Amino acid sequence: MSTTATNIDDIRRLREETGAGIMEARKALVDAGGDFAKAKVLLEQRGAAGAAKRAGRVAAQGVIEPYIHTGGQIGVLVELDSETDFVARMPEFRELARELAMQVAATNPKYVSLDEIPADEAERMKAVYREEAVKAGREKFADKIAEGQFEKYAKEHALLEQEYIRDSSKTVKQLVQDLAAKTRENILVRRFVRFQVGA
After folding, report:
1. Is residue 103 domain-shared with residue 73, that is, in the same domain?
2. Dihedrals phi, psi of 75, to nearest 5 degrees
3. 109 and 165 assigned to the same domain
4. Tens of pLDDT along 87-105?
5. Threshold 0.85, pTM exceeds
6. Beta strands in the chain (DSSP E)
7. How many domains does the chain have?
8. How many angstroms separate the CA atoms of 34 and 42, rounded?
């Protein structure tokens, strides 16, 4: 097989796996010296950077995805928004919304993101963690310990900061960013509500 055919096959495969355009896939392969794995990483990094730039754009389309856990004891509604109806109707978008609803059912987060944790609550918690560190004789590191404990709390209670239940090497935020990079649109987890019988 010729080098040109291989490059075309690699470009096609990169496009399928990352959602990148032909020229972007080609440039990533050239930049990576023909190494497919490196090219894929480059595209993912570039996609994440592009997603950050798009974060300010209005996401007023989307879906509300319901999920009822087996046995009917837990139910979740998640609103996932995009910039256009076209993206909101994509199977991958609906699949992400469903995964998010299952994540909420499994982990019971309190907030969508770190930004939703009230500042006064965050400061109160950090003060408690600082005090605990001082009592444990770690006064010199009390501020770092308090930040670390608060970060741990956030990873448990803010949906976007949580480890993805199906792949602990990814956070929920990365899952959302991956689709945003692929679609080139701002994708936003707007809100969720979780119901549990007897709670």
Report:
1. yes
2. -135, 145
3. yes
4. 999 999 999 999 999 999 9
5. no
6. 61-68, 74-82, 163-164, 167-171, 188-196
7. 3
8. 12
